[in-house]
Amino acid sequence: MNDGIAGLSMYDWPEVQKHNDIFWEMIVENLNKQSVTAPQHLTRVKDHYEIWLSTDLLIGQTCGLNAVRELQGRVEVLGALDYGVEGCEPGQYRSVIVCREEDEGRLVEDFFNKIAAINSDDSYSGYGALLATVNPFVEQGKFFEKTEVCGSHRQSMKAIANNKADIAAIDEVVWNLGIDYEPAVEALRVIGKTQPMPAPPLITNWSNNSLRNVLNEAIEEAISLLDETTKSALQLYGYKPMNSDDYEPISRQLNEIKNPQTIFGIN
Q: Rounded to the nearest 5 degrees, what angle is found at the Cα of 168, between the Cα atoms of 182 and 247?
Protein backbone atom coordinates (compact mmCIF):
# COMPACT_ATOMS: atom_id res chain seq x y z
CA MET A 1 0.00 0.00 0.00
CA ASN A 2 1.25 3.46 -0.86
CA ASP A 3 1.73 5.46 2.33
CA GLY A 4 2.21 8.73 0.48
CA ILE A 5 5.03 11.23 0.45
CA ALA A 6 6.05 13.93 2.94
CA GLY A 7 8.66 16.67 3.11
CA LEU A 8 9.55 19.58 5.36
CA SER A 9 11.63 21.37 2.76
CA MET A 10 11.79 25.02 3.77
CA TYR A 11 14.18 24.92 6.73
CA ASP A 12 15.66 21.43 6.42
CA TRP A 13 19.34 22.37 6.70
CA PRO A 14 21.67 19.36 7.13
CA GLU A 15 22.47 20.56 10.65
CA VAL A 16 18.84 20.19 11.80
CA GLN A 17 17.60 17.30 9.66
CA LYS A 18 17.72 14.89 12.58
CA HIS A 19 15.33 17.17 14.46
CA ASN A 20 12.94 17.37 11.49
CA ASP A 21 13.05 13.57 11.42
CA ILE A 22 12.04 13.46 15.09
CA PHE A 23 9.23 15.93 14.41
CA TRP A 24 7.98 13.83 11.52
CA GLU A 25 8.15 10.59 13.53
CA MET A 26 5.91 12.21 16.12
CA ILE A 27 3.42 13.29 13.46
CA VAL A 28 3.36 9.74 12.03
CA GLU A 29 2.66 8.28 15.48
CA ASN A 30 -0.29 10.62 15.92
CA LEU A 31 -1.67 9.83 12.46
CA ASN A 32 -1.36 6.09 13.03
CA LYS A 33 -3.47 6.47 16.18
CA GLN A 34 -6.18 7.88 13.92
CA SER A 35 -5.77 4.96 11.47
CA VAL A 36 -4.14 7.19 8.86
CA THR A 37 -1.18 5.60 7.12
CA ALA A 38 1.81 7.88 6.55
CA PRO A 39 5.31 7.55 5.08
CA GLN A 40 7.83 6.55 7.72
CA HIS A 41 10.49 8.94 6.44
CA LEU A 42 10.67 12.43 4.96
CA THR A 43 11.55 12.67 1.29
CA ARG A 44 14.50 14.91 0.49
CA VAL A 45 15.01 15.86 -3.16
CA LYS A 46 16.68 18.84 -4.79
CA ASP A 47 13.54 19.77 -6.77
CA HIS A 48 10.94 20.61 -4.14
CA TYR A 49 8.20 20.69 -6.78
CA GLU A 50 8.62 16.92 -7.07
CA ILE A 51 7.19 16.71 -3.56
CA TRP A 52 4.70 19.58 -3.75
CA LEU A 53 3.09 18.42 -7.00
CA SER A 54 2.96 14.75 -6.10
CA THR A 55 -0.57 13.34 -6.06
CA ASP A 56 0.62 11.26 -3.10
CA LEU A 57 1.59 14.30 -0.99
CA LEU A 58 0.36 13.82 2.56
CA ILE A 59 2.16 16.72 4.26
CA GLY A 60 4.66 19.12 2.75
CA GLN A 61 5.93 22.63 3.37
CA THR A 62 6.12 25.27 0.65
CA CYS A 63 6.48 29.04 0.31
CA GLY A 64 3.42 31.27 0.53
CA LEU A 65 4.20 32.62 -2.94
CA ASN A 66 4.08 29.10 -4.39
CA ALA A 67 0.79 28.48 -2.59
CA VAL A 68 -0.90 31.42 -4.35
CA ARG A 69 0.71 30.85 -7.73
CA GLU A 70 1.99 27.53 -9.09
CA LEU A 71 0.31 25.33 -6.47
CA GLN A 72 -3.03 27.10 -6.25
CA GLY A 73 -5.85 24.63 -6.83
CA ARG A 74 -3.44 21.70 -6.64
CA VAL A 75 -2.82 21.63 -2.90
CA GLU A 76 -4.78 22.32 0.25
CA VAL A 77 -3.23 24.72 2.78
CA LEU A 78 -3.28 23.16 6.26
CA GLY A 79 -1.59 25.78 8.42
CA ALA A 80 1.69 27.42 9.36
CA LEU A 81 4.26 26.55 11.98
CA ASP A 82 4.92 29.31 14.49
CA TYR A 83 8.63 30.16 14.58
CA GLY A 84 8.33 32.91 17.16
CA VAL A 85 9.70 35.57 14.82
CA GLU A 86 9.99 38.85 16.71
CA GLY A 87 7.37 41.39 15.65
CA CYS A 88 5.18 38.73 14.00
CA GLU A 89 1.92 37.13 15.05
CA PRO A 90 1.63 33.32 15.15
CA GLY A 91 1.46 32.11 11.56
CA GLN A 92 3.53 35.03 10.26
CA TYR A 93 7.17 35.54 9.35
CA ARG A 94 9.33 38.15 7.65
CA SER A 95 12.78 38.69 6.22
CA VAL A 96 15.85 40.60 7.31
CA ILE A 97 17.60 42.81 4.75
CA VAL A 98 21.34 42.19 4.93
CA CYS A 99 24.54 43.58 3.45
CA ARG A 100 28.25 43.21 4.18
CA GLU A 101 29.40 44.43 7.56
CA GLU A 102 31.86 46.96 6.06
CA ASP A 103 29.40 48.36 3.49
CA GLU A 104 28.70 52.07 3.94
CA GLY A 105 24.97 51.64 3.20
CA ARG A 106 22.66 52.05 6.17
CA LEU A 107 19.26 52.10 4.47
CA VAL A 108 17.75 50.02 1.68
CA GLU A 109 17.65 53.04 -0.62
CA ASP A 110 21.44 53.33 -0.30
CA PHE A 111 21.73 50.19 -2.44
CA PHE A 112 20.30 51.69 -5.61
CA ASN A 113 22.19 50.37 -8.66
CA LYS A 114 23.89 47.70 -6.56
CA ILE A 115 23.79 43.92 -7.03
CA ALA A 116 21.03 41.93 -5.34
CA ALA A 117 21.14 38.27 -4.38
CA ILE A 118 17.94 36.22 -4.40
CA ASN A 119 17.41 32.55 -3.70
CA SER A 120 14.85 32.22 -6.54
CA ASP A 121 12.12 34.24 -8.19
CA ASP A 122 9.41 31.94 -6.81
CA SER A 123 10.31 32.75 -3.19
CA TYR A 124 8.42 35.36 -1.22
CA SER A 125 11.00 35.79 1.54
CA GLY A 126 14.01 36.13 -0.77
CA TYR A 127 12.43 37.72 -3.82
CA GLY A 128 8.95 39.10 -3.13
CA ALA A 129 9.84 40.70 0.19
CA LEU A 130 12.89 42.43 -1.31
CA LEU A 131 10.86 43.54 -4.32
CA ALA A 132 8.19 45.12 -2.11
CA THR A 133 10.83 46.79 0.07
CA VAL A 134 12.70 48.53 -2.75
CA ASN A 135 9.65 49.34 -4.89
CA PRO A 136 9.05 52.78 -3.29
CA PHE A 137 12.59 53.80 -4.33
CA VAL A 138 12.45 52.65 -7.96
CA GLU A 139 13.63 55.19 -10.53
CA GLN A 140 12.59 54.85 -14.16
CA GLY A 141 11.45 51.28 -13.53
CA LYS A 142 14.79 50.10 -12.15
CA PHE A 143 16.47 49.73 -8.76
CA PHE A 144 19.24 47.11 -8.91
CA GLU A 145 22.03 47.04 -11.48
CA LYS A 146 21.60 43.27 -11.72
CA THR A 147 20.60 40.27 -9.66
CA GLU A 148 22.39 37.04 -8.83
CA VAL A 149 20.07 34.02 -8.52
CA CYS A 150 21.79 31.87 -5.90
CA GLY A 151 19.43 28.92 -5.39
CA SER A 152 19.02 29.23 -1.62
CA HIS A 153 19.11 31.77 1.18
CA ARG A 154 22.31 30.18 2.43
CA GLN A 155 23.99 30.71 -0.93
CA SER A 156 22.71 34.30 -1.04
CA MET A 157 24.41 35.01 2.28
CA LYS A 158 27.63 33.49 0.97
CA ALA A 159 27.39 35.55 -2.23
CA ILE A 160 27.28 38.79 -0.26
CA ALA A 161 30.09 37.73 2.08
CA ASN A 162 32.20 36.83 -0.98
CA ASN A 163 31.56 40.19 -2.74
CA LYS A 164 29.46 38.64 -5.51
CA ALA A 165 26.38 40.63 -4.44
CA ASP A 166 25.63 43.53 -2.13
CA ILE A 167 22.21 43.03 -0.58
CA ALA A 168 19.57 40.35 0.00
CA ALA A 169 16.36 39.60 1.86
CA ILE A 170 16.85 36.53 4.04
CA ASP A 171 13.97 34.69 5.69
CA GLU A 172 14.46 35.49 9.39
CA VAL A 173 14.07 31.81 10.33
CA VAL A 174 16.92 31.01 7.95
CA TRP A 175 18.90 33.96 9.29
CA ASN A 176 18.65 32.47 12.77
CA LEU A 177 19.84 29.13 11.40
CA GLY A 178 22.72 30.98 9.79
CA ILE A 179 23.71 32.58 13.08
CA ASP A 180 24.12 29.07 14.48
CA TYR A 181 25.57 27.22 11.49
CA GLU A 182 26.75 29.46 8.62
CA PRO A 183 30.13 31.27 9.00
CA ALA A 184 29.24 33.75 6.21
CA VAL A 185 26.79 35.44 8.61
CA GLU A 186 29.72 36.86 10.55
CA ALA A 187 30.54 39.07 7.54
CA LEU A 188 26.98 40.40 7.24
CA ARG A 189 24.87 43.10 8.88
CA VAL A 190 21.10 43.59 9.14
CA ILE A 191 19.90 46.96 7.84
CA GLY A 192 16.16 46.39 8.01
CA LYS A 193 13.23 44.01 8.32
CA THR A 194 10.36 43.47 5.93
CA GLN A 195 6.61 43.58 6.54
CA PRO A 196 5.20 40.47 8.29
CA MET A 197 3.43 38.07 5.95
CA PRO A 198 1.84 34.60 6.26
CA ALA A 199 4.55 32.04 7.02
CA PRO A 200 5.40 29.12 4.72
CA PRO A 201 2.36 26.83 4.82
CA LEU A 202 2.13 23.14 5.48
CA ILE A 203 0.15 21.64 2.59
CA THR A 204 -1.44 18.41 1.42
CA ASN A 205 -2.67 17.28 -1.98
CA TRP A 206 -6.16 18.62 -2.69
CA SER A 207 -7.52 15.05 -2.69
CA ASN A 208 -6.81 14.85 1.07
CA ASN A 209 -9.25 17.62 1.94
CA SER A 210 -11.31 15.24 4.07
CA LEU A 211 -8.22 14.59 6.25
CA ARG A 212 -7.62 18.27 6.94
CA ASN A 213 -8.67 18.25 10.61
CA VAL A 214 -6.91 14.95 11.34
CA LEU A 215 -3.66 16.19 9.80
CA ASN A 216 -3.79 19.48 11.69
CA GLU A 217 -4.49 17.75 14.99
CA ALA A 218 -1.56 15.38 14.42
CA ILE A 219 0.77 18.31 13.71
CA GLU A 220 -0.36 20.31 16.74
CA GLU A 221 -0.07 17.30 19.03
CA ALA A 222 3.42 16.49 17.71
CA ILE A 223 4.68 19.98 18.52
CA SER A 224 3.29 19.82 22.04
CA LEU A 225 5.11 16.51 22.65
CA LEU A 226 8.52 17.47 21.25
CA ASP A 227 11.41 17.81 23.66
CA GLU A 228 12.85 21.29 24.19
CA THR A 229 16.07 20.47 22.34
CA THR A 230 14.18 19.68 19.14
CA LYS A 231 11.83 22.63 19.52
CA SER A 232 14.78 24.95 19.99
CA ALA A 233 16.71 23.51 17.03
CA LEU A 234 13.68 23.95 14.75
CA GLN A 235 12.64 27.29 16.33
CA LEU A 236 9.16 25.83 16.92
CA TYR A 237 6.73 27.62 19.21
CA GLY A 238 3.39 26.32 17.98
CA TYR A 239 1.08 25.90 15.01
CA LYS A 240 -1.77 27.86 13.45
CA PRO A 241 -4.34 26.21 11.15
CA MET A 242 -4.83 28.38 8.06
CA ASN A 243 -6.36 28.24 4.59
CA SER A 244 -5.53 29.50 1.11
CA ASP A 245 -7.35 32.81 1.63
CA ASP A 246 -4.92 33.71 4.41
CA TYR A 247 -2.15 33.95 1.77
CA GLU A 248 -3.93 36.47 -0.45
CA PRO A 249 -1.97 39.41 1.08
CA ILE A 250 1.10 38.07 -0.74
CA SER A 251 -0.74 38.11 -4.07
CA ARG A 252 -2.19 41.57 -3.52
CA GLN A 253 1.14 43.08 -2.55
CA LEU A 254 3.10 41.68 -5.48
CA ASN A 255 0.36 42.20 -8.06
CA GLU A 256 0.56 45.95 -7.41
CA ILE A 257 4.23 46.08 -8.44
CA LYS A 258 4.94 46.72 -12.10
CA ASN A 259 7.87 45.29 -14.08
CA PRO A 260 9.61 43.32 -11.31
CA GLN A 261 12.29 42.01 -13.67
CA THR A 262 13.24 45.57 -14.60
CA ILE A 263 13.46 46.50 -10.92
CA PHE A 264 15.90 43.62 -10.42
CA GLY A 265 17.95 44.49 -13.50
CA ILE A 266 16.91 41.27 -15.22
CA ASN A 267 16.55 41.60 -18.98
A: 100
Q: Are strands 188-193 and 238-241 parallel, antiparallel or unpaired?
A: unpaired
| CA distances from residue 122 to 39, 64, 69, 250 in whole angstroms, order as listed | 27, 9, 9, 12
Parallel, antiparallel or unpaired: strands 115-118 and 146-149: parallel
Every domain of the chain and the residues it spans: 5-88+198-252, 95-195
pTM for this one? 0.96
| Residues 12 and 62: beta-carbon distance below 8 Å | no
**pLDDT tens, 139-169?**
889 999 999 999 999 999 999 999 999 999 9
Q: Say which CATH topology domain 5-88+198-252 has.
A: D-Maltodextrin-Binding Protein; domain 2 (3.40.190)
Same fold, 5-88+198-252 and 95-195: yes
